[in-house]
Amino acid sequence: MKIALRIAGAVLLSVSLGWPAAFANPATTNETPMNSQNAFPHDFDFLIGKWRVHHLRLKGRLVGSTQWQEFDGTSQLHLTMDGQGTFDDNWIDLPGGAYRAMGIRAYDPTTKTWAIWWIDARNPHAPLDPPVIGGFKDGVGTFQADDTLDGKPIKVRYQWSRITPTSAHWEQAFSPDGGKSWEVNWKMDFTRISQ
C-alpha cells in the first residue's frame, strides 16, 4: 500500500453535472433511468457542492505516534453514472507541499454497497489501493478494506459521521489486529462553501 495515497477517499462524493444534450445516449430505448426507481441510495448527496476541509493527520501510523499535523484544503464533489458513482476534486495543503487528489466511488445495487478509491496527483500512475467497501447505517457511513502497511497486513476503515446540511466529519483508521483495535490517523472536518 502506498500510504501517502490512502486518505479521504474517499472523501468522496457528488454534484449534479447537468450534462448537455450532446452527451446524452443517442440510442432510443425503453429503459427507465435507474435513479427514477431509487435503485441506489442517495448516501452521498449531503456532500454535493464545494467544501472547506480542515485536516488533522497523525505523523506516524501504527507506531505509537501522538503528534498531529494540522492543515487545510478544499473538496468539490460531483455525481456521475446516473447517481451510481461520485468523484471529488481535492486540494490538500499538506505541510511540505500542497497537492491535488481525486476520490472515486461506485455503488453496486446487487450488494447495496459503495466502493471507494483514491488517486494522488503526485503519483497518478500508481496502482490503486484496494477499495474500501461499505455503506451507511443510522447516519454513520463505514467502509473497510484489507491492505498492507510496511509489508504487514492491516485493515483500513473510513467513517463518515456528524452529517448536517453545512458540515460533516470523516476519519481514517488502521487496525493491525484484524479489526480488534483501531488507530485513527486522519480526521477531516468539512464546512460547506457552496452547493
Determine the oligomeric state from the structure.
single chain
User: How much strand?
Assistant: over 45%
Unreliable segments (pLDDT under 50, ≥5 consecutive)? 1-38
Total individual domains: 1
Count of alpha and pi helical runs: 0
Q: H/E element string? A: EEEEEEEEEE
Q: Structural class of the helices, strands and pairings?
A: mainly beta
CATH topology, by name, is Lipocalin
CATH superfamily: Calycin beta-barrel core domain
- Could you give the count of β-strands? 10
Based on Cα principal axes, name the global outline.
globular
Report the C-alpha radius of gyration, rounded.
17 Å
- Indicate the CATH architecture: Beta Barrel
> Class, according to the CATH hierarchy?
Mainly Beta
The percent range for helix content is under 10%
Q: Would you tell me the overall average pLDDT?
A: 84
Q: Looking across the biggest beta sheet, what order are the strands in? A: 1-2-3-4-5-6-7-8-9-10
Termini, distance in Å?
34 Å
